[in-house]
Amino acid sequence: LLFPVSNLCGKCRPRDADLLQPSLNFLYCSLHQTTPCSQQRAVAVLLSNVSLLELLQKVLECTWSRSPPSEPAYLSPEDALLCSGWLLVASLLLYQHRYNTEVHQTLSVDLREVLNAVIFRKKKPILLLVSIMQFLRTVLRQNFSSSLLEIVGQNKAQGATQPQPSPQDAALHPLATQQVFSLVVSLQNLLVHKDFLLSQAVVACLETLVEYLYVKNQDVALHVASQPWHRFLLFTLLNGGQKSFLQPEVLRLMTLFLRYQSSNIISQKEISQILQEAAETNLAELPEATSCALHLFLCQV
């Protein structure tokens, strides 16, 4: 079915949302819900379809050209298509890298637009933000070096007067230091919404960003991980209810701060409180996300 569905997608236009959205979802599920052997073949089939990749390029570009909805929570058919497009592209990047699949057509993405979508949000629905962050996580993990992806819009020369990037910016390329700080503040603000799906995506994005920074410039990474605002954010997330520390986003944030030794954010007192709550909890009844987060936290401790 991959052949006819991917060929059908290649013949569509981005405005054919009713047909494209379930088709892209089918391609996405085909990549994720199959055996590793079949997965490698599926990636090769999709990446050899130039028309499909050209269609995905147009879908991604529609993200920046569409007017934001009046209500951020409203997911229109067009926004649903954008979500499917970003998730499928993120998956193609992931598996192309894993299997070193041959690329017949590259995708071009403006990194400034991707970052601005998260930094400024502009009334984007939560699911679209989550999809874009999933893409951002993938390119961060791959160090912006995928043969399937061309990053544009960063540090292009504009004549002889173009200033040289600072050593810090050069180390973080293609990100700029100011972009990193703006992104971190925006991720913190998004966490305060306390939406489960959004919180999981935000914490995962923050984890990947700090990992990327640590490889590029340890000073910047440790500076980001030790921001005093993180402690205020933790107190905001802790709602004072029973087992308040045993929230997956709180546990993952605590794990992140432990990993980068941010002693000004998490103290021995908080660690003891988490251990005490875990000891008094029936671990078998914890949701899977919480159980996984607690496991990572205990391993880090």
UniProtKB/TrEMBL annotation:
GO terms for biological process: meiosis I. InterPro entries: Immune_Signaling-Apoptosis_Reg (IPR052133). It comes from the Eukaryota. This is MEI1 protein. It comes from Piaya cayana (Common squirrel cuckoo).
